[in-house]
Amino acid sequence: MEFLDYLDRTEVEIIRIVEKSGYKIEENTPLCLLSDNYVGFLEKRRKVIVLCTKNAKRREGYTHIRKRDKDIFERTALHIKKALRHEAVHVAQECNNGKLLKIDRKLSMNPSKINAFNGSIRISREEEKERQAYILEDKPRLVKNQLLKYCL
After folding, report:
1. Is residue 150 one of the residues assigned to a domain?
2. Number of domains observed in the structure of the chain
3. What residues make up the domain containing 42?
C-alpha cells in the first residue's frame, strides 16, 4: 500500500486503532474515480476506509515517490494524512453509535475547507458529521484520542 510511505507515526497509530476496531483500509478503488478531488471515503457497510493516493499525487503533480521535490512530496503527504484522519473521525463517529463525538465546541473549521466540505455533504448528506471531520483532520493526536475513546 503506497499511502503508507506518506504517513507519520501518529497516522500509523491511527491505522492500528482503526483496524483493531474492525475496519480495513483499501487504496485506489473504483470510488476514487468519482472525481480527482476526492482523496478518501468511508464505506460504512463494508467497514472500509478508501484512500485515493493516485488522486492526491495527481492534484500535486507528484508522480514518483522520490523526494527530489520535497515541497510536492510534503503537500501530497499532507493530503493523504488529512484524508486518513478525516475518515478515521467518521470511524470514531460510527463507534459512537453513529453519533457526533463530544469535542470542544470552541474548535472550528478552517474557512479554506468550505468547497471540500460542500462536496462531502453532497455525498454523505451528513453536514454536522462532515463539519466535525473537517475540524479534526488537522489534529492527529485528537483523532487518535477520539478513536481510543469510542472504538477501543
Report:
1. no
2. 1
3. 2-145
CA–CA distance, 145 with 100 (Å, rounded to integer):
15
Q: How far is CA 58 from CA 53, 120, 132, 134, in A?
A: 9, 19, 27, 22
CA distance 124 to 67: 35
Q: State how far the Cα of 29 lies from the Cα of 125, in Å rounded to an integer.
A: 22
Mean pLDDT of 37-65: 89
Within-domain flag for 151: no
Q: What SS3 state is found at 108?
A: coil
152 inside domain: no
Q: Is residue 47 part of a domain?
A: yes
Residue whose entry in the numeric block shows the C-alpha cell 451528513: 126
C-alpha cell at 41: 471515503
Q: Which one, of 108, 121, 129, 93, lies nearest residue 21 by Cα?
A: 93
Task: Name the residue with cell 462531502.
Answer: 120
Q: What is the pLDDT of residues 82-107, one digit of tens each?
A: 999 999 999 999 999 999 999 998 99
